[in-house]
Amino acid sequence: MVRVDQSHQNPIHWLVFSSADEQIIASGQLQSTEQLEQLSQKAVNREVILLLSASQVQLKRVPLPTKWNRKLEQALPFMLEEHLACDVDELFIAIGQPALDGEQHCVEVAVCDKQWFSQWLALFDAHDIELTRVVPDALLLPEQPDNTLSMIELGEQWLCRLGLWHISAIEKSWGADYLHALQPSKIVHYSPAEGVPEVAPKEAKESEYELPLALLAKQLGNSTFNLRQGVFAAKKKQPQWWRDWRSGLVAAGIAIGCFVVVKGTQLVMLQKQADDFKAQAVATYQQAFPGKVVRPHLLKKQIEGELAGLSNTEHGGFLELTNHLVAVYGEVNNFTPETLRYDRRRNELRIRARANGFQVFGQVKAILEQRGLTVQQGSLNNDGDVVIGEIRLRGDV
Fold first, then answer.
1. Closest CA to 50 of 219, 231, 226, 233
2. DSSP H helical ranges for the chain
3. Dihedral sign for Cα atoms in the order 319, 325, 329, 335
4. 3-class SS at 250?
5. Of 178, 184, 292, 380, which residue is most buried, by most CB within 10 angstroms?
């Protein structure tokens, strides 16, 4: 928690406080903003609350013609204009809670000089101190009932709070006149108050006499108001792990994205090839078995069924011999049949083929004989760089 005054040359009070244990961890005072860098390290990984002097922030209740809504928020500066002594464009207006004053709708607002507030925020940003909340200091004094005034001494000032939405910071030199004009019914003070004039009965909270910022820190949970809103809203803090690993994660994300795009493109190409092959298979099936209904997802079973049917007919010998011939292609390279002739009576298949050498025909003959077929090799002739010849396969009659 850091409390600043009107000028950058005024002392700055600070406190490191554990809200869980309600214990003071460290505290101190800087002579001016020139020493603000001393707080940079203390602010690391901590929630920093900035307290602005109540002398620089005015709290007002603005009467409304109807219940608070977004349209009234846009008209709010014009409603305030007649109650201000300066140009409303020079002010920053922070909105608090809608309220009822009797039967009158109103809204709580805090008003401060826009440029002055902006300079303070920029100064803390320059020292890498992230401010999560900004609150007028006296607004964190304990709230008292009725017309009772809360007071605590801070430096050369008294911070005062009257009711829910009335605060001030008074100098000791003229504070008496202010208190006489305010006429509270009672004064509850959290610091020794010998110098406070007897304008009302006093109640000393001696058990709570402590550092002023410690008392204010204990009241943070009782207030939700934050001056960091609108144009001055705090940016969402990025986790430290993200700041440390952001570059690497971004690069990894790009690499993964590229990998997905490449694989996606390959998948599309492979799917297109699969579709082309399926179309070719369907066309071949329709050509081989005209008039048959094609079911692409059952095409393999349809072909197996048709072949099984043929094996029990007069075409069974032809299919058996061609099946043996097809098996050759997995074992012999550069062997290309040109014509096939089948003699059903003799159950003989004549293959005219070409190869890149005489030895290829010898390999084919040897493989087919190993499969239990009767094989006869006809004449072989050179035709340029290839050899053309004939092989006869004979099955059981």
1. 226
2. 70-81, 114-126, 175-182, 212-218, 240-288, 299-311, 316-328, 358-370
3. negative
4. helix
5. 184
CB 94 within 8 A of CB 110: yes
The answer to pTM > 0.90 is no
How many whole angstroms separate alpha carbon 153 and alpha carbon 176?
14
Residues with Cβ within 8 Å of 349's Cβ and at least 6 positions away in sequence, in order, are 318, 321, 322, 325, 340, 341, 342, 343, 392, 393, 394, 395
**Rounded-to-integer distance, Cα 117 and Cα 134, Å:** 10
Rg of the chain taking only CA atoms, in angstroms: 47
Q: How many angstroms separate the CA atoms of 39 and 322, rounded? A: 91
What is the distance, to the nearest Å, from the Cα of residue 195 to the centroid of all Cα atoms in its chain?
A: 56
Tens-place pLDDT, residues 219-228: 999 999 999 9
Alpha-carbon distance of 299 to 303, in angstroms, equals 6
pLDDT digits (tens, 9 = 90+) for 196-247: 989 999 999 998 898 999 999 999 999 999 999 999 998 766 566 655 677 7
CA nearest 356: which of 378, 336, 371?
336
Tell me whether residue 212 is exposed, middle or buried, using C-beta atoms within 10 angstroms of its C-beta: 0 to 12, 13 to 18, 19 or more: buried
Residue that the structure tokens 């008074």 belong to: 170
Contacts of 131 (CB under 8 A, 6+ apart): 48, 49, 50, 121, 124, 228, 234
Query: Would you state the structure tokens that stand for residue 104, as one six-digit string?
Result: 């009158």
* Spatial distance between the Cα atoms of 79 and 98, rounded to a whole number of angstroms: 15
- Per residue, the 3-state secondary structure of 219-248, as one string, reads CHHHCCCCCCCHHHCCCCCCCHHHHHHHHH
